[in-house]
Known about the structure:
This protein is mostly helical. It has helices at 2-18, 63-81, 91-100, 106-130, 139-144, 164-169, 184-202, 205-214, 216-226, 231-234, 240-258, 286-293, 297-303, 332-340, 346-354, 373-380, 384-390, 416-421, 435-440, 447-453, and strands at residues 22-24, 30-32, 40-43, 46-50, 55-56, 275-280, 283-285, 311-313, 320-325, 363-366, 403-406, 424-428, 466-470.
Amino acid sequence: MKKYFTLLILSVFANYTNAQSTKTDTTGLKAKQVVNxxxxxxxxxxxxxxxADTLVPVPIVDEFLLNSYQNMVYKHRLDxxxxxxxxxxxxxxxxxxxxxxxxxxxxxxxxIIGLAKYYFPIYEKAFREAGIPEEIKYLSVVESAxxxxxxxRVGATGPWQFMFATAxxxxxxxxxxxxxxxxxxxxxxxxxxxxxDAYHDFGDWLLAIASYNCGKGNVIKAMQRSGGNDFWxxxxxxxxxxxxxxxxxxxxxxxxTYYKKHQIVPxxxxxxxxxxxxxxxxxxxxxxxxxxxxxxxxxxxxxxxxFKKHIVNGTPDKPKRLLIPKTVYADFDKVYxxxxxxxxxxxxxxxxxxxxxxxxxxxxxxxxxGENLSEIADRFGVEVQDLKVWNHLHxxxxxxxxxxxVKEASAENASPEKKSLKSYYTYKVRKGDTLNRIADKxxxxxxxxxxxxxxxxxxxxxxxxxxxxxxx
Length: 472
């Protein structure tokens, strides 16, 4: 063993003295590293570095050879999973691999890899049917971390982060009851249509992906300015965010495949990944259905994220698709009643929409001092996004005296059941949660208000318990 170790050190030293050592400068190019041999001595053929204070035998490792080996490993791995989309390897891709595999991000990646077991088959089916590469599924991780309820600071929404106008252009529906940008199935088909168009325009998948982030116009400008026709040749002419967007996509493709090499353990989904699909032709309350199925309302909501009011607004002419966890129904009669009767909470909402004087009543509201768009939306029982669309607003900012167009019945005239549906959120406690951490997730919530609403005697929480959180 000792002889083997000595030979190993001699081999490292031979590599060092025979190979020209290099380092990477700030431009990403390789610069020669000048080695002062007078500073290198040997003791019994083992190299060490001469220091000012003492002589410490330190085996010299050729950094360039080590990095080259590591780079070749990453490149080989990317090459092995490449299909239709080029998974190029360079320092930009490596930097994002380092980011996504960093210790502080491993918990987040564990959750995403667990969620992928549910969402990726949905994406793959949509992309196969559309005739585009299935590996585009990784882009949703970059966009939203596989969160169907994700909303960006500029209003991009859903797992594929569609802006309102683009979503309309590619066939997604948004109204008082439904936002299909949050529907993983419908949004995936819309994404496929966009990327198929972009690939037809550019003839290059990485350019098509870049355009998904910054728009086709910016890609065309970058191509004109650079004279290039591939992502890496036009990269420096693209918006700053897009320069990292494509390398991040390639890095995610790597991490989602080789996570075990980085000691990342997938976290199980906290909702059912095996479900039944039901076509609903009536108004159905997800809350009532959750009770009949004996599942948490939050689970029904995450399986059916596009229903904004937690009510499935199916009609005989336009039935709606509803996902139900595969479970042993505790009381099938209750499930049948929840699916087929308009009763309980769904019926008053449906009636309120049809009563004279309340059906999509159009009125103006003049903004008062101190009011904001969220408060106005709550007052009239509508969504902030609806107010923005109806009034052509680009942000949530409003000023006193401004007139807003409202197309829904006043909240004062809405049924008590409708008010109760909007009065609070539900939250399922996870490992590591505290009342303060949960309160930070919701505007206006405090640890004390959560404790009081849920009649908690202490701040102690248990994983899996469901909490009510006041809305605003």
